[in-house]
Design brief:
Layout (H helix, E strand, L loop, with lengths): L21 H8 L6 E4 H12 L12 E5 L1 H9 L7 E2 L3 E4 L8 E8 L5 E7 L16 E4 L2 E4 L1 H14 L3 H28 L4 H13 L7 H4 L3
Parallel strand pairs: 2-6
Antiparallel strand pairs: 1-2, 3-5, 4-5, 5-6, 7-8
Helix pairs in contact: 1-3, 2-4, 2-5, 4-5, 4-6
Length: 225
């Protein structure tokens, strides 16, 4: 599965693509007890691939991010073991900033070719969710992998863009937001065609756009029209 974005030349960020995890994610998705959605840059890349947004180069990331439960985290980590992936640990951390967002589950892993990365599962996303018991947005399965809807991804990425101190990561957030700016209108048109109700997410994103600046300027105001 090739995902698309003009990726910055940042070696520490260019470690994995969605293809490294696709089989494991599909296996977990068919397990009713392993509920999760893919978030972060790899989810943005998957949406870009689905709608033909971007320049066709692979989307890379330093790791893979999901929103889900401890069960989902364990299942995603364990699914690829038989393919030679080495699990280096499994850590559960209470999230302090912002407070009230539950726990993050982090598993450092080593891929068969020696690349070191990690699986991180967050119980809740700032600005997207009220907390671990009130997840918002919805998952859409694309090629067997549940992706968080693009409007929710934009909200989450905008929070990251506003709150990160690392210029390299902020640069990635900006690129992801630019991609989502092109993805969202196409997603909304497809959702309307399929009869998917996006009103709550459109209202939520509209409120965020009213309250917070974006790196996109005027184009961000046109996404929901």
């Amino acid at each position: 599965q090739a995902c698309h974005e003009k990726s910055p030349d940042l070696p520490m960020e260019r470690i994995v693509t969605l293809a490294d995890f696709a089989k494991a994610l599909c296996e977990v998705a068919v397990d009713a007890g392993g509920e999760y959605v893919l978030v972060g840059g790899l989810a943005v890349g998957a949406w870009a691939n689905a709608f033909g947004i971007g320049d066709g180069t692979p989307m890379f990331s330093k790791d893979i991010d999901l929103r889900g439960t401890r069960l989902a985290a364990k299942a995603v980590v364990q699914a690829p073991q038989w393919e030679g992936v080495m699990i280096k640990g499994f850590v559960s951390v209470a999230r302090k900033e912002p407070p009230g967002f539950g726990r993050n589950y982090v598993a450092p892993i080593e891929l068969p070719d020696g690349r070191a990365t990690q699986v991180e599962v967050l119980e809740a996303l700032p600005w997207v969710d009220d907390g671990p018991d009130r997840p918002y947005g919805f998952g859409v399965e694309v090629e067997g992998i549940p992706l968080l809807d693009p409007l929710s991804l934009f909200i989450g990425k905008l929070h990251a863009w506003h709150h990160r101190d690392d210029p390299d990561k902020t640069s990635n957030d900006r690129l992801h937001l630019e991609l989502l700016g092109g993805i969202i209108p196409k997603f909304l048109a497809e959702a309307e065609r399929r009869g998917v109700d996006t009103r709550e997410r459109r209202q939520a994103l509209g409120a965020i756009l009213d309250a917070h600046s974006t790196p996109l300027g005027k184009p961000s105001e046109d996404m929901l029209r």
